[in-house]
Specification:
- There is one protein chain.
- The protein has about 350 residues and is an alpha+beta fold.
- The chain has helices at about 5-20, 25, 30-70, 75-100, 120-145, 170-175, 265-285, 290-300, 330-335, 340-355; strands at about 110-120, 145-155, 160-170, 180-185, 200-210, 220-225, 245-250, 255, 305-310, 315-320, 330.
- The strands form 2 sheets. Strands 2-3-1-5-4-9-10-11 form an 8-stranded mixed beta sheet, with helices on both faces. A 3-stranded antiparallel beta sheet has the order 6-7-8, with helices on one face.
- Helix 3 (about 30-70) packs antiparallel against helix 4.
- Residues about 230-235 and about 290-305 have low confidence and may be disordered.
Length: about 350
């Protein structure tokens, strides 16, 4: 049980942060907001768990008082039934509160940049990459998130050789980070006449989106090229030089964006992707040891790791980081964007690993 003094301390800190963020002077300071905002969002979840827990505790006390004071046997029996229900909820609420108190990865509350690339499997891999994109579109819609495509390169038969998009909303990176890695599909391709099952793959990289406050990009460190954007099969989608390629000279990172008709918009989107990639490098350098522990626990950080298999003949999705009855899920539900159960199972596994290595 979380003692009452600890709960009071958390609620008081949350109230203080709320007042600070509401202060116009704080709101006008990007660096201070970048520090206070994530802590406020994290504590809001803890306070919500505390309020639910304390409400149930209060209801338990009221039922117990009613049982002790009531003379009507029928009312006492009803109160005992209600007390049993309320008491049975407390262990789960305590567990939820303990999970909420586990220090979160500070990047969890951030927006994200997602990069999907077709891997082995040729045209079928490109079609699978498009399936994954639609899966994340549906998942984002169910969470009330917004998606903005930054760059895409089509395959010959449709699908994507590569698609890069931004996702904004509440706790985006904290949910999508578990998608990092190689996704494998087993199914009969559209081009297969003999009905033979093929195995193809696509890689997914999820980057926490950085702000210009955290990652300053020097203009003289950039080589910017503009060119005419093109669609699948070389078909022109724009008659002006609106596509942008940015090379970050110190690191050699290259980012392209051609989805917008405006060169200025493409440059802005490419810069966002570059900033996020640089931020990821910075995080990996500073937190290499911590990341190694987390990646070992959930296998989600290393993009070379096969994390999930989508088996169409068996109508099953297998997440290779999970065990027991959490390992397999109905394919049709997952492919339609119902990732909630998978994410919760992976988050629980992550929490266990982080507590063990705390």
């Amino acid at each position: 049980m979380i003692d009452i003094e600890k709960r009071k301390e958390i609620k008081e800190r949350f109230r203080l942060l709320t007042d600070l963020i509401a202060d116009p002077k704080t709101a006008a300071d990007p660096k201070q907001m970048a520090t206070l905002g994530p802590e406020h969002r994290e504590l809001s979840e803890v306070v919500e768990a505390i309020q639910k827990y304390e409400t149930t505790l209060s209801e338990v006390e009221e039922m117990q008082k009613l049982i002790d004071s009531e003379k009507d046997a029928e009312l006492v029996a009803l109160a005992r039934e209600e007390l049993d229900v309320l008491t049975s909820r407390l262990p789960k609420m305590e567990a939820a509160l303990h999970r909420a108190l586990i220090p979160k990865d500070p990047t969890d509350a951030r927006d994200a940049i997602v990069e999907i690339r077709a891997g082995t499997g040729g045209d079928e891999a490109a079609l699978f990459a498009a399936d994954l994109f639609r899966l994340y579109e549906r998942y984002a819609a169910s969470k009330g998130w917004n998606i903005s495509i930054m760059n895409r390169s089509g395959g010959v038969l449709g699908g994507f050789k590569e698609v890069v998009f931004g996702v904004s909303g509440k706790n985006v990176f904290g949910n999508l980070k578990y998608e990092n890695g190689v996704h494998r599909v087993q199914r009969v391709p559209q081009t297969e006449s003999s009905g033979r099952v093929h195995t193809s793959a696509a890689s997914v990289a999820v980057l926490p989106e950085a702000t210009d406050v955290e990652v300053k990009i020097e203009p003289n460190h950039l080589k910017i090229d503009v060119y005419r954007s093109s669609g699948p099969g070389g078909q022109s989608v724009n008659t002006t030089d609106s596509a942008v390629r940015i090379t970050h000279i110190p690191t050699g990172l290259v980012v392209t964006c051609q989805d917008e008709k405006s060169q200025h918009k493409n440059k802005d989107k490419a810069t966002r992707v570059l900033r996020s990639r640089l931020y990821e490098q910075k995080l990996n350098e500073v937190n290499a040891e911590r990341d190694a522990v987390r990646r070992k626990a959930v296998g989600s950080g290393d993009r070379s790791v096969k994390i999930r298999t989508y088996n169409f003949p068996q109508d099953r999705v297998t997440d290779h980081r999970l065990e027991g009855n959490q390992k397999n899920h109905p394919l049709r539900k997952v492919i339609e964007g119902e990732l909630h159960e998978l994410v919760e199972a992976l988050r629980a596994t992550d929490h266990v690993g982080r507590m063990a290595n705390a």
